[in-house]
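Repro:
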Amino acid sequence: MSITEIVLPEGSTGRVLRDQFHFAAAHRVGDIIELSGHTGHLADLTLPEVLEEEIATAFSNITATLEAAGKSWSDVFSVRTYHVVPTGADSIPGEAIGAVLTAFASHLPERYPVWTAIAVPALAFPGMHIEIEVKATI
């Protein structure tokens, strides 16, 4: 099975992260395009201060990666979200789940992906609240 990296345009968030941290935003593997965890970082690697904006930006970053692969959200069949939760919390905050559901309604109005939401104590970079992995069909 062949593996082909999906390379994003210069200046895109995924390309900046690729060049600085040596990992691909996505690979085409057989009949699947698998995206690495996408964040709400802007191209300058800052994060929006509002959670809902960070989540919307993460979805925009995923859109850019899908488009670089010649795909769209209509090809997405699997989504895994990682949410930072406060110490001692027993669930993911409702505003985070709500923002993801709003993004689903916008990006996937006629398709329901499989979705796993995972609560974590921290992510790779300070200030991050969400990271999203996606799989799409070719």
